[in-house]
Amino acid sequence: MNTRSVASQGRGQARRAANSTAVEAGARAGFGARGVIYVLVGALALQIALSGGGGKQADRGGAIAEISEKPFGQIALWLLGIGLVGMALWRLSEALFGQAGPDGDKASKRAMAAGRFVFYCFAAYSVLSFAAGESGSGGGSSDQQSQDITAKVLAWPGGQWIVGIGGIAVACAGIWIAVQAIMRKYHKHLKMTEMSKKVRRALDICGVFGGTARGAVFATAGGFAVAAAVQHDPDQSKGMDDTLRSFTETPVGPWLLVVIAVGLAAFGVFSWFNARYRKV
């Protein structure tokens, strides 16, 4: 057997491993875990809109802290973190071998999958670190983390440009997320033929509303990053918690945050639909 055939056989075995039942189960567990986080973030944001939130954070750290305070919270956090590890491994398999579907091998889709792999690695690490007792890892304020990172980057040569371009990229990503949701582009990733009409209707309500709300949060956070770059002020940069609180400062008061909060919870439910019907 020559070297080329050995390499080809190795790639084939790796691809079969990427398409295995274990990877599929990990992906579905990951969507379930993402759904839990977004439902909790939406609930915390709703508390902030209606009563100030009682000092709680409406971000991943706040969701982790909320889970940890419940009975069997540590067990739930371990399960949540393992689910996010499954999501990260699935995204890695997409980056290496392509996504499901006719255009899954495109370089752009693989690059996006690689970026999501990095994101979910960080998310899984933060949850598992908190579950293991390192409370500063997972439960830290996203606002403080955002400001600290922005301050460091602004101190670099050309740091204003880097922060500004990064902010524009996040804002554009938010707009893209919202447009994709409104156009229901997620249909191509789901097993629509397995759904009843009622399930499809519920899916679209959660997918369009939730995706639009999520996109609005990303776009707003990107705008704050651009403001931080223009003013050379890291305090202008905001994490998810402060970004959500900023919606209460609009002319409609806290009601815009109520809409966004319900939308984020809807995106969590949409993630649960993905856990069941996603093509993996």
Automatic annotation (TrEMBL):
Q: Which UniProt keywords apply?
A: Membrane, Transmembrane, Transmembrane helix
What Pfam families does the record point to? DUF1206
InterPro entries this protein is in?
DUF1206
The residue ranges crossing the membrane are 36-55, 75-92, 113-132, 161-182, 203-232, 252-273
**Where does the record place the DUF1206 domain?**
29-97, 113-184, 209-278
Under what name is this protein listed? Answer: DUF1206 domain-containing protein
What's the source species for this entry? Streptomyces rhizosphaericola
